[in-house]
UniProtKB/TrEMBL annotation:
Species, as recorded: Pseudarthrobacter siccitolerans
Lineage, opening ranks: Bacteria, Bacillati, Actinomycetota, Actinomycetes, Micrococcales
Entry keyword annotation includes NAD: no
Protein name: cytochrome-c oxidase
Topology term for the membrane: Multi-pass membrane protein
Segments crossing the lipid bilayer: 55-80, 101-118
Amino acid sequence: MNTTRRNTSRWRRTAALSFIPAVMALTSCSAEVQRGWLPGERDTTDHTPLVTDLWVNSWIAAVIIGAITWGLILWCIIAYRRKKNTVGFPRQMSYNLPLEVFYLSVPLMIVGVLFVFTDRDQRAMDDRFSDPDVVIDVRGKQWSWDFNYVKEDAHEDPGVQAHLDGNWGAPDRLPTLYLPVGKKVELQLNSRDVQHSFWVVEFLQKRDLYPGKNQYNRYINIIPTRTGEFTGKCAELCGEYHSEMLFKVRVVSEQEYNSHIADLRAKGNTGIRGDEFDRNPARPALEPAQQRTEP
């Protein structure tokens, strides 16, 4: 009996000592750990803190629940193992009502808590601005992107498919979307042909693009809060050259943004490249000449 108690006590100390480093690792001062190893910086947009906190806190909860579960399993294995001189079988029970209620209620509570926090943050990210400062019509196509600045009545050059070399190095010339820092931006997402997915990696948000449908939530409303250049790509397998459907996002000052719009207008990139360039089976096809000349 004394030996069993010593073994159980030793196991409890070992489990406690193993649990402490795990918690310390999750709550350490490392910036990467605090972000849960997510890409980019915490304050890239007004939404990245919401995503980061939900991700990290979910992992902390999962580690704590997992440690408790494994601890109980190991405790049962050690405390109720068959003794050397035991004869026969222990008393058998067909059910234990309090234990079964516990097994049912605790997982439901865990799922309910995760649902509440996820729903709260998702609703906050899906809220639309009543009067955004910048509205951009984003058009995904096989295998590139077109960007239209709606309020400025200007557009970027037609996007051209990237061509990656054998080392998967990104080419210099990629479709580039300009955003002003600190301004309310609405990205209206559309597809010219098949289903795509708009994903700016460091923004920690992506959204699918459906051809020919006015789908709910085909938009992203954000406020960029950090200047810099960010990586964009399609996150939906959309054909042979899906991996080369890349783009860039440059978040710049308002002055630089206005200067870029002026440059687009100066070289004739006025107006919106809209539905007339779509290649949607549900709509009339483009003439062959248009299909050859338009990227």
